[in-house]
Amino acid sequence: MAAGEPQAKKLKLEEKEVSQNALFGMGNPLLDICAVVDKDFLDKYGLKPNDQILAEEKHKELFEEIVRKFKVEYHAGGSTQNSVKIAQWMIQQPHKVSTFLGCIGTDKFGGILKKKAEEAHVDAYYYEQSEEPTGTCAACITDDNRSLVANLAAANCYKKEKHLDLEENWKLVEKAKVFYIAGFFLTVSPESILKVAKHASEHNKVFSLNLSAPFISQFFKEPMMKVMPYVDILFGNETEAATFAREQGFETEDIEEIAKKTQSLPKVNKKRQRIVVFTQGKDGTVVTSGNEVTISPVLDIDQSEIVDTNGAGDAFVGGFLSQLVYDRPLEECIRAGHYSANVIIRRAGCTFPEKPDFH
Questions:
Q1: C-alpha to C-alpha distance for 236 and 214, rounded to whole angstroms
Q2: Residue 7: its pLDDT value, please?
Q3: 314 is a catalytic site residue
Q4: Are residues 187 and 54 in contact, defined by beta-carbon separation less than 8 angstroms?
Q5: Which of 89, 102, 295, 328 sits CB 3.0–4.6 Å from 332 for a disulfide?
Q6: Taking a C-beta distance cutoff of 8 angstroms, is the pair 139, 53 a contact?
Q7: Most confident of the ranges 77-86, 136-145, 296-305, 309-318
Q8: CB-based contact 52:138 (threshold 8 Å)
Q9: For residues 42 and 35, is the Cβ–Cβ distance under 8 A?
């Protein structure tokens, strides 16, 4: 079996150990409630077939009704939780490399969320409170469309002093070497984000943030820019990048220029140059590396194989982080991001097969 020997050596070289809780995520945990519904259901609640909205008063009953009337599937959701879950799926072993903190309610949906995180082998430490119910996101599917209605509820109640500051939870921060938080959490607990970001910077660990949605750059500009000097890796898509550039007065719509200008914003930890990663759907991913800006092509996929692009951004980040915890080169992180996004868009919701096929 001489022919196999070099390959075995190569694998040994590749496989650095990665420890439990090496990856730390914090954000809004939502239980995704997915169901194929009918047009009457959409009309009743004034929903467009393909949209993402925050729940209003008129959507209150929707969450109970969808469970009562249709066959539903539950998935642990929320942007950051999706990403750390996908990172864990890509890593496989050991379990619980991914840690997640967020706030849920003491209710049935909270119980389901805990169970789902456990099934995904994510080490979830939820702050549980009884004032607000667990946050949910109803995915109302008709044909190829899905209309998303998010009710943050408990996710909005995260408290730094009641959870992150507790010794047993802060220990998880100290154990981690890579941090990831979606910009959505800036609307909930900017002080928690800052505390974690400062820790990462002081200990030369990697802190990453996502622009998440145009409204974050517009209406949460102040907390975002307080965190920005600590950001080692910034993720976003082309729409979010354009809005960020406008809000920052960059005076350019060229995505490569935006990436360069974002990279050179003030930074506290000078040992790490900021990396900016902007995805553009089916077009190549824009990446700053050193003083260069490169564009990495995504994997080809036939339009007819795309089922649901909603989780693509979260999946890209998850794949990227799965290689980052091993300290693998930037190209490998991007390649893994493209791979996991390519898997996710072939399926409904942010779900995946049992094992990845990434080499």
A1: 10
A2: 43
A3: yes
A4: no
A5: 328
A6: no
A7: 77-86
A8: no
A9: no
pLDDT, residue 306, reads: 79
What is the average pLDDT score of the chain? 91
Q: How far is CA 244 from CA 58, 205, 211, 213, 235, in A?
A: 32, 25, 8, 10, 12
Q: What is d(CA 282, CA 18) in angstroms, rounded to the nearest whole number?
A: 32
If we measure between CA atoms, which residue out of 344, 170, 159, 321 comes closest to residue 232?
A: 321
Cβ atoms < 10 Å from Cβ of 175: 13
Place of tokens 């990048």: 241
- Options 38, 165, 314, 327, the catalytic residue: 314
| Residue type at 245 in one-letter notation | A
Q: 141 to each of 47, 137, 192, how far by Cα in Å?
A: 11, 12, 35
pLDDT at position 2 is 46
- 21-44: per-residue pLDDT in tens? 999 999 999 988 989 999 999 999
- Calpha distance 191→165 (Å, rounded): 11
CB distance 265 to 247 below 8 Å: no
Tokens of 209: 């943030």
Pair of tokens at residue 317:
């980040």
Nearest 10 degrees: CA dihedral of 258, 284, 193, 153?
120
Task: Tell the residue number behind the tokens 């809004």, with chain if given.
Answer: 28
CA pseudo-torsion sign 17, 19, 23, 29: positive
Nearby residues of 274 by Cβ (< 8 Å), 6 or more positions away: 231, 232, 233, 234, 262, 263, 264, 265, 267, 288
Per the structure block, which two tokens stand in for 95?
């379990």
